[in-house]
Amino acid sequence: MTRIVVKVGTSSLIDDKRGTLQLSSLCKICETLVDLNAEGIQVVLVSSGAVGAGCQRLGIDRKDVTRLAHKQALAAIGQGSIMRQYDDVFSALGQPSAQILLTLDNIASRSQYKNASATFEELLKMKVIPVVNENDSVATTELRFGDNDSLSAQVAIMIGADWLFLLTDVDALYTANPSVDPSARAIPVVEDLNTLAVSTDGGAGSKYGTGGMVTKLTAAHLASAAGCNTVICLSSHPERIKSIIEGDRSEGTCIMAISERPPKPTKKWILSVSPKGVIIIDKGAASAVMNRKSLFAAGIVSIEGQFSTQDAVKILDLESNEIARGLVNYNSSDMKRILGKSSKDYEDTIGYHGPEEIIYRYNIVRTSQVSDKMVVALSLNDLTDLTEQQDSSD
Fold it and tell me: Can you give the residue ranges of the PUA domain (predicted)?
């Protein structure tokens, strides 16, 4: 059975000029999801708009909202309002829906992650459409997804989705900003994110949101590693979702998964949690990691950040490209002392002999494709250099 996550951004729900909810867009999206659900496609909706709706209710311009507490209060006002609209429309269509609010804290906790996953599974079995948003009213700066593109990717990974649809007011990913460059071409399919060649021009979107094309590519990078295809397409034509699933590549941009086989539950969770640090490894170690081998200290060149044992980290090659993520067996303090050393030297260096492996192979999940040559992956740190088109999200 096909399972999809559909994310709709604030700019697709809130009229930027009038500052009001676009009911026609919301209704059209709901009607499409109900039709898909009736055809046996399991659907989860990730919706932005809580803060934007709160601003709308109080007549506040989003750009004037700077304090965290102010934003959280507006989210509390807006979330009930926007969920009421979804419930009214779904109910009118005879479709049960449910609300799920998540924070990074829920994802980082393995037990809460399992509970959330189990809740999604039960709702989908009952043919209910979950409506998901970040719980802005309680999330702190340190525990925020930051944008609902990232949240939608985390949900897609959690539920083992086949497709992630990022609905936006841009019809596709372009080689340049089409509003200023007449030679810009839409990119229908991206087999490998490493092959992207895009412009650095473009804006961040409407005054009601926080996202852009950068966050969509970041989300696609994570979803792709979990075996989920990602599509960037117009929110004004949600009815095209089915044809895209069936193979139509004339609409939007489809970023293909790097593997058709979804990762095991532990690796799915590793992709979902926020990395606490970075490990940079040499060419030999990178090749081993890409061939599903464990990571040893001898292949580590340097580390960044502070992390504890069993924290998730990014694994980068010498070109600063992210190739994998994993759970470490040593904290950052000890790792700095043993990096580049043989495992037989651990005890003399740090006073004890722990596991030989810095990261076990079964705690490593690749986030880049394997090729005959050394992998050159799209660095998430460099995504800020890519085109930011005209969409946003809470």
Answer: 277-359
